[in-house]
Write a structure and sequence with these properties.
The structure holds two protein chains of two kinds. By secondary structure, chain A is mostly beta strands. Helices cover 0% and strands 45% of the residues of chain A. Chain B has a five-stranded parallel beta sheet with strand order 2-1-7-8-9. By secondary structure, chain B is α/β, with parallel strands linked by helices. The chains are: A mainly beta, B alpha/beta.
Chain lengths: 67, 373
């Protein structure tokens, strides 16, 4: 498998969104944690009023929607 | 896990399957296209098609951006990657897509500095860390991925990074759907709409399908119950002689999409007059390029690229697979000359590709109905 992520998905296809929880905010960036423990710095400029503890759908390190 | 376990419940799945059986008309054959590669992957991973009546056929659509990239664009990327001083970055799935003379991985083996990244923001970090090198990001994907590229380019502009540029291969979902609906090769009864693309574009762009072509669309999530419920909603529309866009994935998809993402895309990109899709040919206004305001960050203007159209290998039938005209196992080289380890066609490269999904989960049968491998 040639996938980028450990679950065998293709990152290029936008339909591999990852649900992540906001751990810490830093302007338009947020440190987010996925259920499997993966931690990434995520751009949150496209979702209004993101707060710590919010659950976001993240694709390619960009939050697309609050869940 | 919340919103996952509930949507993988086998008992509930069988219940929805029984509801599907209740709305199908005996003797009628239904063809439902799942637009997304993500849906194709889930269908074969979880065996969704095993729960469907025999007269409900799932047809795999062109919604895998890796699968629709033509060989000439791969050649263009490799030409840039071979430029002295360039660090060429792309998603991992693209590394093994064949061009006319090899893949990006081959170019890496021959000395080009090709690096896999998880996001365009990772490519930007490399550019910051390597100010003396030219860092190029090979952007690919539908509207879900395009906002990420747009924000990265806006950030590069704001930071004044001069050693970062983007080779843009982003495509849009509506034009190929219209091309498929106009194709005489294929009669479809309805569409499972793309879930996460719709988080960005919303549901409205799909309203032309019921309005102009009289086919229902149901936007769906990616868990097995999401897909089963969407199929039920499509078939229920057909049974009731209704035809509209419905949203099964309301827990994620707002009907109007994400306006901030659309604004970012509108600032950074403009439509290309034409773009070549593997298997579908040239489709007008179906892809994005950098707008003039971002021309200085456009790798295709910064570097010389061949820009030559390359025909697909004769043995490869990715085009027919992408149009849903044939099933993956009906391709002459499926599972023999073309495997995930040694892919000839793009549909076998990406895990979201229909051929790879069939191959990896072993859910394919021959025309005689038995397993083929």
């Amino acid at each position: 498998m040639s996938a980028c992520d450990p679950h065998g998905h293709c990152i290029t296809c936008g339909d591999v969104g990852v649900e992540m929880r906001v751990v810490r905010l830093d302007d338009d960036l947020a440190v987010c944690e996925a259920a499997d423990g993966d931690v990434r710095t995520v751009e949150v400029a496209l979702v209004d009023g993101v707060c710590e503890g919010d659950r976001l759908l993240v694709h390619a390190d960009v939050a697309l929607v609050r869940l | 896990m919340r919103f996952v376990d509930e949507f993988r419940d086998g008992a509930l799945g069988r219940k929805v399957a029984a509801q599907i059986l209740g709305v199908v008309e005996p003797g009628r054959h239904y063809k439902v296209m799942e637009v997304c590669g993500g849906h194709t992957h889930s269908i074969y991973r979880y065996g969704v098609d095993d729960l469907l009546p025999e007269n409900v056929e799932l047809v795999h659509g062109p919604g895998c951006p890796v699968c629709v990239i033509p060989m000439g664009r791969v050649d263009d990327g490799i030409a840039i990657a071979r430029e002295p001083g360039v660090i060429f970055t792309c998603f991992g799935d693209m590394l093994r897509v064949p061009g006319s003379a090899g893949t990006l991985l081959d170019a890496k083996a021959q000395g080009a500095d090709v690096r896999m990244v998880y996001s365009p923001l990772d490519a930007l970090r490399i550019a910051r860390a390597e100010p003396d090198r030219e860092v190029v990001f090979f952007a690919i994907g539908f509207e879900t991925t395009a906002p990420s590229t747009a924000l990265t380019l806006m950030r590069a502009r704001a930071e004044g990074l001069r050693n970062f540029s983007c080779m843009c291969n982003h495509v849009t979902i509506v034009p190929p759907l219209r091309a498929l609906l106009d194709s005489p090769d294929l009669r479809l009864d309805g569409f499972i709409g793309p879930g996460h693309v719709s988080t960005v574009v919303g549901a409205r762009p799909f309203e032309f399908i019921p309005a102009d072509y009289g086919r229902p669309v149901v936007i769906a999530g990616f868990e097995p119950l999401d897909i089963l419920q969407a199929i039920h909603m499509i078939l229920a529309q057909l049974a009731a002689d209704r035809c509209e866009v419905e949203n099964q994935y309301t827990r994620v998809v707002p009907y109007d999409g994400n306006p901030a993402a659309l604004r970012a895309m509108a600032e950074v990109f403009e439509l290309r007059p034409h773009f070549e899709w593997r298997g579908l040919g040239f489709i007008s206004q179906s892809a994005l390029r950098l707008a003039d305001a971002y021309a200085d960050l456009d790798a295709e203007r910064r570097f010389a690229v061949p820009g030559v159209r390359v025909a697909d290998p004769k043995a490869c039938q990715c085009g027919e697979v992408l149009k849903g005209v044939i099933k993956p196992w009906e391709c002459k080289v499926f599972g023999t000359a073309c495997t995930p380890e040694h892919a000839i066609g793009t549909c076998m490269v990406s895990p979201e590709g229909a051929c790879a999904a069939y191959y990896n989960y072993g859910r394919f049968v021959t025309s005689s109905g038995g397993p083929s491998l």
